[in-house]
Each structure stands twice: as C-alpha cells, then as structure tokens.
Amino acid sequence: MPKHARCAVGFCDNDKRYPDLAYVRSHVNNLTFHKWPVDPKLAEIWRKQVAKTRGDVFNPSPGASGTFVCSNHFPLGRRTPENPKTDYPSIFMTVSDYLQKNSPKKRKANRWQEPGSSKCLLAPKIEECNDDCEGTDE
Ligand SMILES: [Zn+2]
C-alpha cells in the first residue's frame, strides 16, 4: 500500500488518489500513473529526466513503490515500451502551466479594453490630493 501516489515530476500535483483534481494536458487521452520502472537502465533515464524538474535530491531505486510519473510527461501521453525513444518522461510542467492550473476560476476583467490602451480609464485620485498638497505654509 503505497502512501504516496503523487506524480514525481516537479510542478505536477497530479495524484492518483484524487483523479478529479488532475490536470490533463491536451495530448493525453487517458491520464494514468506509471509506476517507476524496474529496469535499472530505464529507471536511471527516468530519474535524470525527473530530477531536472525538482529542486531536491531525487533518487528512487528501480521499481520503487510509491513513485509515479503521470501521462502528461510522455510525448505520446502514455508509456510506449515498444519504442524506447518515447518511453520516458520528457514533457514537463512549466511554471505558467502550474499557475494556470491553480487559478482556473480567475476571470479577466476589462476584457473589452483595447489592448493598446494601457492607461487607466478611471480618473486618478491624485488630482484631489494635489489640491491639498499644494497648500503649503508659504
Ligand atoms: Zn505528472
């Protein structure tokens, strides 16, 4: 019974226990969590790839239970044992993916504004302040 069922890749929060919360990239048809490879050579390839995405020391042993990589990180959206060239994680989350995922309900305000009009349409309140501030002691 592995306690950890979270994708090992940095910036990816997908967790086997919470499929409803998973972030699925467009190239993935069916999100699955791939167990860490038992084959030492393959495990080392995976380790190097995943380690690049993490800030900590990442060194799971081959076949480690509780270490998973989700489908998002495979070029074809799944493992391809028949083709070693795509059978390791090589697609990683970017920070913007991560932020997007964590603020899906954020609405864009003032969408109607022209992209070029960067100036605020509201009258700045500074003018009121100026009246007060200009009254010096002279
Ligand atoms: Zn993942």
Automatic annotation (TrEMBL):
The keyword Disulfide bond does not apply. PROSITE patterns: ZF_THAP. InterPro entries: THAP_Znf. One of its GO terms (molecular function) is DNA binding. Residues 1-92 form the THAP-type domain. Keywords: DNA-binding, Metal-binding, Zinc, Zinc-finger. This is THAP-type domain-containing protein.
